[in-house]
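Researcher:
Attend to token order:
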Amino acid sequence: MTHKVMSSFASGILLASTVLGGVYFFSSEDAGAKETPAKEEAAAETAVLSEADMKSQLETSGYIVLTDDEFSKEIKTAEEKAKAAAAEEAKAAAEKDAAKDADKVVYKTVINVASGMTSGDVAEVLVAGKVIKDASSFVKAVESKGVENKLRLGVFEIDSSMSVDKIISTIFKN
């Protein structure tokens, strides 16, 4: 850099600093003078408002104003309503379950497993006795357990409340 470029750069920095300093010192006094009365007015307005004035102003703005006691009463009331609704719902569910259990019919059948019967024959007898709904799904369950050739001979009492696995373990050898 040459001497001329350096002196031009330094002059520019000095001029910018002088302009910024002048703006800072001369405008800050005016701005401070304008802000002070506004702050004092705002402080005076808030000091003048009473509790009733504040409450009415908030209510006109759409807010709900409650004291601590009123708020705690509202919470207790809401909790009591929620407990009552939950108890009523549980009672209704219990009644529904009781009605469902009362409507459920248990079918019992006695099956005589004789020599030469297959798992398909047993399934057909169980369907006829309304113990199971589908013979093919019963046969598939028997085959999946691998006990289709292990049929026990004898007389067995089976009812519709038994699970398919329980029926299989009763009639077939494990």
Q: What stands out?
A: The longest strand covers residues 108-113.
